[in-house]
Design goal:
Length: 140
C-alpha cells in the first residue's frame, strides 16, 4: 500500500527541490514559540521565503482546526509542490497527509524535521534534521 502523501524526504533532498523548483514551497508547521525560540529555516539564498502555519496552536497544543484553510489562503494552487517541516518529522507527516486528502497533489514530509530525533541523552540537534544537515537557518 502506498503512503497517503508523496512520502518522506531528507532535509538535503528538500533543499534540492527548493533549489530546482521555483514554485516549491516549504511550510513550517511548528508553533509560534518554536519559530521564535528555536529558529527557522533561511531560504534567502534561494530568494524564497518559507510559510509558517501552526499544526497545533501555542499555547496549549490544541490542533489548529483551520490548518487546511490557512494553507489554502497562502497556497491556493493545489499543484504546488509542498514540503512540510516540523521539529522531528511527526507533525509535518500528519500535515502532509491532511493536505493530500484536501486535494494537494504533492506533499512531502521532511524527515528529521528542523531539530531531529533525540540522541542517547534525549537531546535534539545531534542526530538528524535540517540543522544537523548544515542547511541555512536563523535564530528568531
Amino acid at each position: 500500500m502506498s503512503e497517503p502523501y508523496a512520502g518522506d524526504i531528507t532535509p538535503k533532498q528538500a533543499w534540492e527541490i527548493l533549489q530546482s523548483s521555483k514554485d516549491a514551497v516549504l511550510i513550517d508547521v511548528r508553533t509560534e514559540a518554536e519559530w521564535a525560540w528555536v529558529g527557522q529555516v533561511n531560504l534567502s539564498s534561494l530568494e524564497k521565503e518559507h510559510l509558517l502555519v501552526e499544526w497545533n496552536r501555542f499555547p496549549g497544543g490544541m490542533r489548529n482546526e483551520t490548518f487546511i484553510e490557512d494553507v489554502a489562503k497562502l497556497v491556493p494552487n493545489q499543484t504546488t509542490e509542498l514540503l512540510m517541516l516540523c521539529r522531528s518529522g511527526v507533525r509535518s507527516k500528519y500535515a502532509a497527509i491532511a493536505l493530500t486528502a484536501a486535494g494537494y497533489k504533492t506533499c512531502y514530509n521532511i524527515e528529521g524535521g528542523f531539530e531531529g530525533d533525540h540522541d542517547d541523552q534525549r537531546h535534539r540537534g545531534t542526530v538528524n534534521g535540517w540543522k544537523v544537515a548544515g542547511l541555512p537557518w536563523m535564530q528568531g
